[in-house]
Amino acid sequence: MTAYSELSAHFGRVAALSNAIGILQWDNDAMMPRGASATRSESMALLHVMRHDMTTDPRIGEWLSDAEGDNGLGAWERANVREIRRVFAVETALPADLVAAASRAVSACEMTWRQARADSDFASLLPLLSEVLKIQREIGVAKGERLGLSPYDALLNDYEPGGRSAKIDVLFDDLAAFLPGFLEEALEAQARRPQSAAPEGPFAIEKQRALGVRMMATLGYDFERGRLDVSAHPFCGGADNDVRITTRYDEADFASSLMGVLHETGHALYEQGRPAAYMDQPVGHARGMSLHESQSLLIEMQACRSREFIRYAAPVMREAFGGEGPAWDADALWRQYTRVRPGFIRVDADEVTYPAHVILRYRLEKALIADEMPLSELPSAWNESMQALLGVTPPSDRLGCLQDVHWPSGGWGYFPTYTLGAMTAAQIFDAACRAEPDLLPAIGRGDFGPLVGWLRTNIHSQGSLYQTDELLTRATGRPLDPAVFKAHLRRRYTGE
């Protein structure tokens, strides 16, 4: 076997183990009984150490050196070697005992977070979250020393390869300066439009699920390679060719669940559209979380809050719930789905206020990783930031710093990819609409073929063949340009 063949076979085995971890993690978050948490924690810790051992095998370094000198490799194989080198550099920075400690800490903290969130009891989570944070700092330091990065940038790099906080600071400071004035303009424009009441519930959960499944099918989700379930926090997970999504239901508000389903289906379409020939190789993975979040936000925000989609969906919604009256008219529903209203919950936020939720979390997690504020002050710092950025103060920690699972689950450095993803989504959707003139009219007919087909060709099937900036430039003609996102907001919310 050649060095490249050895690498490919080895990382195929890594992928098989990762798939097992993915299914167990999905079960942990969606189905596992609470009493099994301690046993599952030990199983997950062992599997994470086994994967770490596989990805730090000393033979990988030898194979890489030989493969990097192989002039007979094609573009995909060369890119795969590049991605394996990146993984190897990151993984060899960590000792196995730190990997195991991180897995155990996260398992315990996630389980406690569920109850702490329900009880709005940050104090009960603080000891376990402190341990997660301590370990994440250690991971950031170890990876940062290996990669020549700050601890925070080293954590960010896991989710956004090549991403740097210095660049994000500039983008987010610009958005933070733009949003307050634009929010005021959007609210004024909204006040001039006809007001409409939201459809009144209750909306039976089984009917909400049926509607979600129907919309997933409309988008092109392959139910032969995935499923829909319920969890405390909506997510997309699972394994290669077994892409599972979750949502949560509120009988008083079917829109929250539906938009959660649409969002996670965007993630799932990306996973189901990855290059089949390289599905088990690093080059076949999705290209970072800003691209991944762009796909979920493109479906949820760009496509499924468009007038065209709502015109198609309005009669489907009426049929699903037996709705009657003007609240179910397409124009009234569109006003509801594009209503701007500062609120407490990130996943329920509108497009205009959503970036503020992310900027808040980004700034706080940077300060926490840098040990610039004690974790015990997180609730008060969170509330002060919400007031400063959105003019609202959460009445409880459940509606404040306990609402997201990311930090308890060890996802430090993830949050900025949401707003990077929103900006990327606007740019990709704009390019797709320019390339496919029938795209929006087709959505109005419930036909997502032109949109998903364009995404399959230009984003999904490309895996990690190209680095993020090059992939975006190839797809849209330019690197990330926040002006496209701002222009989209102006068109939709102020009519400019």
Secondary structure blueprint with pairings:
Layout: H1 3-30, H2 37-55, H3 58-68, H4 75-91, H5 96-119, H6 122-147, H7 151-159, H8 165-192, H9 205-219, E1 226-230, E2 236-239, E3 242-247, H10 254-272, H11 288-303, H12 307-321, H13 330-337, H14 354-369, H15 378-390, H16 416-435, H17 439-444, H18 449-458, H19 468-476, H20 482-494
Parallel strand pairs: 1-3
Antiparallel strand pairs: 2-3
Helix pairs in contact: 1-2, 1-3, 2-5, 3-4, 5-6, 6-7, 8-20, 9-10, 9-12, 10-11, 11-16, 12-13, 14-15, 14-16, 16-20
Q: How would you sum up this structure in a few lines?
A:
It catalyses: Release of a C-terminal amino acid with broad specificity, except for -Pro. By secondary structure, the protein is mainly alpha-helical.
Task: Summarize the structure in words.
This protein is mainly alpha-helical. The chain has a domain at 3-148: Methane Monooxygenase Hydroxylase, Chain G, domain 1. 65% of the residues lie in helices and 3% in strands. It contains 20 helices and three strands. Strands 1-3-2 form a three-stranded mixed beta sheet. α1 packs antiparallel against α2 (37-55) and α1 packs across α3 (58-68). The chain is globular. The model has no long low-confidence stretch (mean pLDDT 96). Keywords: Carboxypeptidase, Hydrolase, Metal-binding, Metalloprotease, Protease, Zinc. Belongs to the peptidase M32 family.
